[in-house]
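This section describes the prediction task in plain terms. A model, or a person checking by hand, is given the sequence of a single protein chain and must write out its three-dimensional structure as a string of tokens. No templates, partner chains or ligands are provided. The sample shown here is typical of the held-out split.
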Amino acid sequence: MNLDAYDRKILFALDQNARESYIQLAKKSGLSKDSVKYRINNYLKNSLLGGFYALIDSSKLGYYAFRVYFLFKNTTHKDEKIILEYLKNQKRVFYLFRVEGNFDVGLGYFAKSLKEFSDFITQFGNKFSKVEIFKEELFVSLYHFDRNYLINKKRIQIPKEILQEPREIKLDKIDLELLKMISNNARIKIIDMCEKLNLTSKAVIYRLKNLEKNKVIIGYKAKLNLEKINYSMYKTDFIIRNKKIIKDVESYILQLPNIIHMEKVLGGLDLEFDIECRNYKEFKKILDDIKEHFGREIEKISYYRTTEIIKTTYFPEK
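The expected answer:
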């Protein structure tokens, strides 16, 4: 799909806050409310957008977050489809993607304890002998950034941080049901939540605001289908020679408009970023720019291209 300036403004606004009203989106894009509504319906119809989700800090629900990379061994397309469908249907799998590189698939998994995660890995390995676990890691934190490249704007905003050290806060059944409801439908109307929760609009809005205030809900994002706009995501890792300048390198990289995630894992590399860009040439240009500033201090850069994002949801269902 070819995006015009209006499309880019709408998509950027939705990426900043997917719950904004059509009127708010109209003001930001310079279009009428009806035009904005028509375009968004078109994005969904043409699969440019796969929906909208809430960024939920699962650590506030008492969960650890793990990352797993694995390889397929002697598999057919049918074998791989079965394995991926199994993982997609696992309620604790919050992120699932295919890649080109040293491994084939990456996933994120929520668990209340290390044993719970270990049991999942054991069960998964026993069920599918054609899978070889490549790497297992524990998230320290994950940062989400807005897609500033859509409007060619340098980044100045504070990132949205999730997946931290578990520190469970008290939530009742209604709060959890609301989180479940909004996790994969961030634009759900208040009136629909009222009907499903059997609450007044005032009560629903209060609970929603409270979850945002306590940073259980960090934000609302759009599921952008990069393939539709000929973009790719490159997961990029840095090993820095001089550890004293890691913060300087990080600060420089984070202001680049194509950076959308920064990940920190226990025992991981010095810096990990996800970069979205049109093609390898543009990606290489971004790396060359970083090397121009810090090349003598960067010991190694490794990367792999994400070919498909299969699942994204940040609510850990039981």
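For orientation: The mean pLDDT is 94.
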